[in-house]
Design goal:
This protein is mainly alpha-helical and 335 residues long. It has 10 helices and 4 strands, in the order ααββααααααββαα. β3 (206-209) and β4 (216-219) form a beta hairpin.
């Protein structure tokens, strides 16, 4: 990862800079850049000398004139030739110093840039923060408990689903028979109306209709002994009352079953609420601990960032032994 790579590069490129545990002279970025600019000027000056080198003299004479040829260009002498190698070496050394300074300053600038872009999340991914990251991950592994659902109360219809097939069949049969007889023997029912009509014609068996010669006499005769009808009607009423009473007993039992179920559900709901409140309290405690841990780590991150930024800003560039002579030369030129 980028953070691991950055740490590795830090360790490898620390050689550019003076280590706090081993104090030694070093250059600030501005001083190093000044000397590098001075070195560039010196390179330009020396390269101009080298580029203008020639090893022959140039004379000019007129054919019409017997005067001695005039020297118009003087070639370099032995002293220049002897100085050519040291000059080339000096140019190489100056260029090496410039390249070294540029790399060191670039590394310092990149460190400042990395620190400017170092977010809290990236900081946690640094190898040295592995324990912090693991602790924060473990602390964040919390879930808010779900609130218990409202109690779904039941009724007699639910209770009927708890009956056995035999019990349900008996219940439905009673309900059907009681309902059927109830319809028949109701004052407006067909059996009750037939009974009442029989009583009416028994009291008034003849009914004239029309007037005058158009008058007709309609007579009624019971097709069955009226008392037998009354007795059967009473028997039907009695059967309906018996079935209705048994049905009401079963309905009462179903209501009790539903009531007991609702009591059990409400009791279970109260226990769920208590358990939920306990788990919610634990969740809030864990959340508070997690937030506190995050705040502490963010404070650590801020302290680290300030400290590392100040450290990077104050980094001084080491002058290696190989470049010490060039540095001394440039220092003398800069005075």
């Amino acid at each position: 990862m980028e953070e691991n790579k950055m740490t590795t590069e830090y360790n490898m490129l620390d050689q550019f800079f003076v280590r706090p545990e081993r104090p030694e002279p070093g250059l600030t970025s501005s001083s190093a850049s000044f000397l590098a600019a001075l070195a560039s000027q010196e390179v330009n000056r020396l390269e101009t000398v080298v580029k203008n080198s020639s090893f022959y003299d140039t004379y000019l004479e007129l054919l019409s004139n017997s005067a001695e040829p005039r020297l118009v260009h003087k070639g370099k002498d032995k002293a220049f030739l002897d100085a050519l190698y040291p000059t080339a070496v000096r140019i190489g050394e100056l260029r090496g110093f410039i390249a070294y300074v540029h790399e060191a300053v670039k590394e310092k600038d990149q460190r400042m840039e990395r620190l400017a872009q170092m977010t809290f999340e990236k900081w946690l991914r640094l190898p040295e923060n592995a324990e912090r990251k693991a602790a924060l991950k473990a602390s964040a592994d919390i879930r808010k408990p779900s609130e218990p659902r409202e109690v779904q109360e039941v009724d007699s219809e639910w209770a009927k689903t708890r009956l056995s097939v035999k019990e349900l069949a008996h219940y439905l049969l009673l309900e059907a028979k009681a309902s059927t007889l109830g319809i028949y023997i109701h004052p407006d029912g067909p059996v009750a109306r037939a009974k009442d009509k029989l009583a009416e014609i028994s009291a008034k068996p003849i009914a004239p209709e029309g007037q005058g010669q158009e008058t007709t006499i309609k007579s009624f005769r019971p097709s069955i002994e009226p008392q037998a009808v009354y007795d059967e009607y009473n028997r039907l009423q009695q059967s309906q009352r018996v079935w209705e009473a048994e049905l009401n007993t079963l309905k009462a039992k179903l209501q009790i079953l539903a009531k007991d179920e609702n009591l059990a559900r409400n009791q279970a709901h109260r226990e769920e609420i208590l358990d939920y409140q306990k788990r919610l309290s634990d969740y809030e405690v864990q959340t508070a601990r997690h937030n506190s841990l995050v705040q502490r780590m963010q404070a650590d991150y801020s302290d680290w960032l300030i400290r590392e930024t100040e450290k990077a800003r104050n980094l001084k560039i080491v002058v290696p032994h190989e470049l010490q002579e060039t540095y001394d030369h440039l220092s003398r030129l800069g005075k």
